[in-house]
Amino acid sequence: MPDLLKPQWFQILLALSRGPLHGAAIMEEVLERTDGAMKLWPATLYGSLRDLEEAGWIEQADADDPPQPGGRRNVHALTAEGRAVLIAELERLEATLDVARRRRLLDSREAV
């Protein structure tokens, strides 16, 4: 398990935590959830999906949707190991956020 996940990997795993998705749906969810701050361009998305699959954190899943004209959509799902990696990263972020709260760093946002 890496010390830190690449931001795009974290966002992809988080998107897949709600269930299997195809690439376009992953891109849409990440863009929407981050209020446009993270756009996964196709090369980044599909390279990341390949890397995550090679790591054993995601796998191909059966598509519920019928094949689209011009080809089929690959649907991706979290594996048990991928879910464990995501949870570990969320726990790391939670611990960091706890430090920020104890130091009242977030309170200073109101004073700015």
Q: What does this entry look like structurally?
A:
With 112 residues, the protein is mostly helical. The protein has a single domain, classed as Arc Repressor Mutant, subunit A. Helices cover 54% and strands 9% of the residues. The chain has five helices and three strands. It has helices spanning 7-16, 23-33, 42-54, 80-102, 108-111; strands spanning 21-22, 58-61, 75-78. The protein has a three-stranded antiparallel beta sheet. It starts with 6 loop residues before the first helix and ends with a helix. The mean pLDDT is 90.
In brief, what are we looking at here?
By secondary structure, the protein is mainly alpha-helical.
**Helix residue percentage:** 40-55%
What would the average pLDDT be, to the nearest integer? Answer: 90
Calculate Rg over CA atoms: 16 Å
Largest sheet: 3 strands, antiparallel
What sequence of helices (H) and strands (E) makes up the elements? HEHHEEHH
* Ends distance: 38 Å
Please provide the count of β strands.
Answer: 3
Form type: globular
